[in-house]
Amino acid sequence: MAVGVAFALAAGLLWGLVFVAPLMLPDYPAVLQAVGRYLAFGLLCLPLAWMDRRHLRGLTRADWVEALKLAAIGNLLYYTFLASSIQRTGGPLTTMLIGTLPVVIAVAANGRNARRDGRLPWGRLVWPLGLMLAGIALVNHVEMGAVQAQDDASLARYALGALLAVGAVACWTWYPLRNADWLRDHPGRSPRAWATAQGLATLPLALLGYALLWGWMGLSGAAFEMPLGPDPFLFVALMVSVGLLASWLGTLCWNESSQRLPTALAGQLIVFETLAGLLYAYLWRGEWPSGLTWLGIAALVAGVLWAVRIKPVPVVAEAHAH
User: Fold this and answer.
1) Using an 8 Å Cβ cutoff, are 79 and 37 in contact?
2) pTM (2 decimals)?
3) Which of 37, 68, 139, 237 could bond to 296 as cystine, CB 3.0-4.6 Å?
4) What is the pLDDT of residues 37-74, one digit of tens each?
5) Under 8 Å CB-to-CB from 33, ≥6 apart: which residues?
6) Is residue 301 within 8 Å of residue 134, measured between CB atoms?
7) Is 313 helix (H, G, I), strand (E, B) or coil?
8) 290 neighbors 94 (Cβ within 8 angstroms)
């Protein structure tokens, strides 16, 4: 359990990097950032695939189809929604909207495979989840106040940003549940090789997306300088960094965690990603969080620590009376 939580924390710290990258590239379309990140991720996975070739050869056609689905929804679609949202709302607001993931995933996961994972009792789960929600609400309140105080605030732009964040939440509720199901159903398989397989599955999707975007921008007469934009060095450096640290290493740590923890519990630990994203966003802004923001963060952490202590209750198969 402790090792599983440590791996989840490491994944959160690495995944938090994705919340600051769109703020560093405000002039770059979110779709370009998504295909750029996963093109870098896919290319980085090629030498890793050679190292894992024995494990990868053991994957069936059905496994590769599953890796392709996870790559399309959990990687490309999720990050397109996320980057689009961050560029419209600012880092902390989107980060806290994504922070509803621990609650959403816990609700979606609890009892899905009760015989395998046991069931977290709702009566005990509701309190830490409520505390986490309260923390999210506090930080959202502070950020919305800051938005309304701006002279050039566009409520429509922020509303669209919030809606895009909801789309990202939907993608990333589906992804960890589906990914954990595969890992728990294949306990003998290498989590590292499965992370690499998802990277390989992402590569053709990202290449196709990059080509379509380049073609569309050329046909529409967009002023944006394809293929690498106005700041090629920063763009490539960020895409490679996020591709290696967040996409591959973060996924590897999460896979190691998912094999050790019940799905509902692992889902709640995604809150580490939220906290890391907040930290990086405030560092990029160069400002200190307010008292209410600190209170909200404390509530989130307390809720997670409380939830981690709740043990799943084993489910005994009921005998059918005839």
Assistant:
1) yes
2) 0.81
3) 139
4) 999 988 988 998 999 899 899 888 999 999 999 999 99
5) 21, 22, 25, 79, 83, 239
6) no
7) strand
8) no
